């Protein structure tokens, strides 16, 4: 079934409830959650697990090259800093 058991919206019609944990903010597809869509990969909803756990569950693979943890942490920190700077500049 391609609709949310928790709030009842139809994911197959691209409907979603933003405050529903089973919807998780997306219908049947979403940008890669590991890199916030930077890699361009699209993940598919795992319908069985989303329904069973009442939380959004996704299947996919980040197509960005995985870096060693130290570099990844540093990269994430740099990315967050840049986003905060942009947010401050736009406020």
UniProtKB/TrEMBL annotation:
Residues 52-76 are annotated as: Disordered. This is Protein pinocchio.
């Amino acid at each position: 079934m391609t609709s949310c058991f928790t709030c009842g919206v139809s994911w197959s019609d691209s409907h979603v409830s933003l405050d529903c944990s089973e919807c998780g903010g997306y219908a049947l597809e979403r940008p890669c959650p590991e890199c916030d869509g930077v890699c361009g990969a699209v993940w598919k909803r795992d319908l069985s697990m989303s329904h069973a756990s009442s939380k959004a569950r996704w299947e996919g693979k980040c197509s960005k090259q995985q870096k060693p943890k130290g570099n990844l942490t540093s990269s994430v920190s740099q990315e967050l800093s840049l986003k905060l700077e942009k947010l401050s500049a736009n406020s």
